[in-house]
Automatic annotation (TrEMBL), chain A:
PANTHER family linked: ABC TRANSPORTER ATP-BINDING PROTEIN (PTHR42711), ABC TRANSPORTER ATP-BINDING PROTEIN NATA (PTHR42711:SF5)
Organism ancestry: Bacteria, Bacillati, Bacillota, Bacilli, Bacillales
Gene3D superfamilies: P-loop containing nucleotide triphosphate hydrolases (3.40.50.300)
Organism, as annotated: Priestia aryabhattai (Bacillus aryabhattai)
ABC transporter domain span: 2-230
Taxonomy, superkingdom: Bacteria
Family (UniProt): Belongs to the ABC transporter superfamily.
InterPro entries linked to this entry: AAA+_ATPase, ABC_transporter-like_ATP-bd, ABC_transporter-like_CS, ABC_transporter_ATP-binding, P-loop_NTPase
Keywords, alphabetical: ATP-binding, Nucleotide-binding, Transport
Name recorded for this polypeptide: ABC-2 type transport system ATP-binding protein
A GO MF label: ATP binding
From TrEMBL, chain B:
Compartments, record wording: Cell membrane
Organism of this sequence: Priestia megaterium (Bacillus megaterium)
Protein name (database record): ABC transporter permease
One GO MF term: ABC-type transporter activity
Membrane topology value: Multi-pass membrane protein
Gene Ontology CC: one annotated term: plasma membrane
């Protein structure tokens, strides 16, 4: 379970997050929606231990983010928006390098089966720079799963790729969710929210405007069409 | 992680060639070039022997052994032509009757000197030549005096008395006759090995190695944007990653130092293992320095430019190219606090621990590591 209590983040005079409070249950998939600069990535950076919050508390699986950074890194898997891979290295070398950055020592077979799970079988020895955008995205996700984290923090994992790869990734995320992984998922795509997430949260100018299911959102906004619901949440 | 990174680096043939051979090739080419320049920069002086006697030949032979001045044996016509073309600095002529004059104990005006207004070496060469003539006349005078005394005291003398007395007097000029004193700059020790001065190529190697370290540290900039963010979320952390990659490079550069040392030993006959020790310490400093420099930079292009300027500047001040004492005493004092100082003058000494240089190197590594941590901390 992830508990975010009154978390704020300021960069100089600019406030990126303002008193955000959110609870995510184990095994839940929650989508983060919001316009650019709303604070979604900042929130994910705080949860993934990249940035420290200016104020407030975060606990992941009962571990305080301030005191147990190392232990928290054992349970979280972070999928950045950028492709965080060595382009000059092969899929195998990338997987091995990233596995060396974890506390677990995985065999080649284990790493290879992880690649197969994201449909990268047959690409094991291929250099990353020769892979398509979709394949790179899949490998980007596979890397975050090397140490078998229970919490996945995904920052727009399907941005800028072809439809087929996007559908494959969404299907894989659903599989992960079915296995009980807790996932926080940033996206701008409403369909992905509807397809993958149990609940969604709307961030606007650093403030949490809404958290709940689509039905609750419809009730709150009085709109029926999902697009209108989200539009109203983002603009009202 | 370190071994994995080393394996990866070794799979890049261009990088391997660069790390292992570029400093070596650069050093060998530059040092042979410098040796050539050094020999070309000797002041040419012509010697004209019109006497063709044993003594004139002896003086000329001795002069030609002088390494600081290039003595050319020419005939008068050639020498005058060369002087007119300003290709030589001056002409020293041994005229007919030179030996006779010397044997009579005369040393004033026994050699003719031709110079130009632009001649720079005349005074110094005149001293050298004069001392050689003085040596001869002294030997002759002493031998004559011995022969005279033998006659006065009616002592039986062998047929070679004069020659023996001459030789004996000549030997008094050894082991350090005026002509063969090794001039040594204060604090330096020059030992000739092969064609190149030993103080020349190890500091040059230091320059090329530091330059290459800076080039290969560009990973710090290239990986920062995409990889460092994720590194921060991994168990080993970003610092762990930077430490491992730097260590992997340091291992490769230490290997490079070993290979370079072996080759220097083979080519130039390095004797002291102190050189190897300080080469190894130096490469670790280089890796720390270049990683820090890269951590300060945002763009690869500007980083390369700044690196070249900084490395060249540090190498000049550190004495990698020439003794900085020639520039100024202040720069020489500064140079003693630079890591390049580790590589100066150690070749000729047995393995001695130069604590100040080692302490400076350790301080440099610590300072760079601290600054890298500080710079990386701000990566969001």
């Amino acid at each position: 379970m992830i508990e975010i209590n009154n978390v704020s983040k300021t960069y100089g005079k600019k406030r990126s997050l303002a008193n955000v409070t959110l609870t995510v249950e184990s095994g839940e998939v929650i989508g983060l929606l919001g316009p650019n600069g709303a604070g979604k990535s900042t929130l994910l950076s705080i949860l993934s231990t990249i940035t420290a919050p200016s104020s407030g508390n975060v606990t992941i699986g009962g571990l305080s983010l301030k005191k147990n950074q190392k232990a928290i890194r054992e349970v979280i898997g972070y999928v950045p928006q950028d492709i965080a891979l060595w382009e000059e290295l092969s899929v195998k070398e990338n997987m091995k390098m990233w596995s060396k950055m974890t506390s677990r020592s995985l065999s080649n077979e284990q790493l290879q089966s992880l690649c197969s799970a994201v449909q990268l079988e047959g690409r094991w020895k291929e250099k990353v720079k020769n892979l398509s955008g979709g394949m790179k995205r899949k490998l980007n996700i596979a890397v975050s799963l090397i140490h078998e984290p229970s919490v996945l923090l995904m920052d727009e994992p399907t941005v800028g790729i072809d439809l087929q790869s996007k559908l494959e990734i969404i299907r894989y995320i659903k599989q992960l969710a079915a296995k009980g992984k807790t996932i926080i998922y940033i996206t701008h795509d409403l369909n992905e929210i509807l397809d993958v997430c149990h609940r969604f949260a709307v961030l606007k100018e650093g403030k949490l405007e809404f958290v709940g299911t689509m039905d609750q959102a419809k009730e709150k906004t009085g709109e029926e069409a999902e697009e209108n619901v989200v539009y109203k949440l983002l603009h009202d | 992680m370190i071994s994995e990174k080393i394996k990866q680096l070794l799979k890049r043939p261009m990088l391997v060639i660069m790390i292992f051979f570029l400093p070596l090739i650069g050093t060998i080419i530059s040092s042979s070039f410098l040796a050539k320049v050094q020999s070309d920069s000797k002041i040419p002086v012509a010697l004209v022997d019109q006497d063709h006697s044993n003594m004139s030949k002896q003086v000329m032979d001795r002069l030609q052994k002088t390494t600081e001045i290039q003595f050319l044996s020419l005939n008068e016509e050639q020498a005058r032509k060369e002087l007119a073309k300003n290709k030589i600095d001056s002409i020293f002529m041994f005229p007919n009757g030179f030996q006779q004059e010397v044997e009579e104990g005369n040393y004033q005006g026994v050699i003719d000197l031709l110079t130009l207004p632009s001649s720079v070496a005349t005074e110094a060469v005149r001293e050298v030549v004069a001392s050689e003539v003085t040596r001869l006349t002294t030997n002759v005078k002493a031998a004559n005096e011995v022969r005279f005394l033998y006659k006065v005291y009616n002592i039986h003398a062998g047929p070679d008395l004069w020659k023996e007395a001459y030789r004996y007097t000549d030997n008094q000029w050894k082991p350090k006759p005026l002509m063969t004193i090794d001039y040594e700059a204060q604090g330096t020790k020059h030992t000739k090995q092969g064609n190149v001065q030993m103080t020349g190529y190890v500091p040059l190697w230091g320059f090329f190695t530091l330059l290459l370290c800076c080039i290969t540290s560009d990973w710090m900039i290239k990986e920062r944007r995409h990889l460092f963010k994720r590194m921060k979320t991994m168990q080993k952390g970003l610092y762990g990653y930077i430490r491992s990659v730097s260590a992997a490079y340091a291992v490769l550069y230490v290997l490079q130092a070993l290979i370079s040392f072996a080759l220097f030993k083979w080519l130039y006959g390095v004797e002291s293992y102190g050189v190897l020790l300080y080469m190894c310490i130096y490469v670790i400093v280089c890796v720390a320095f270049s990683t820090w420099l890269a951590s300060e930079s945002q763009r690869v292009g500007s980083y390369y430019m700044i690196s070249v300027v900084m490395v060249t500047g540090l190498s000049i001040i550190g004495g990698s190219f020439f003794p900085v004492g020639e520039l100024s005493a202040t720069i020489e004092r500064i140079s003693q606090w630079l890591p390049q100082h580790l590589l100066l003058y150690q070749h000729a000494l047995p393995l001695t621990f130069i604590w100040k240089e080692i302490a400076v190197s350790i301080a440099c590594i610590c300072l760079c590591a601290f600054k890298i941590v500080w710079n990386v901390r701000s990566i969001k």
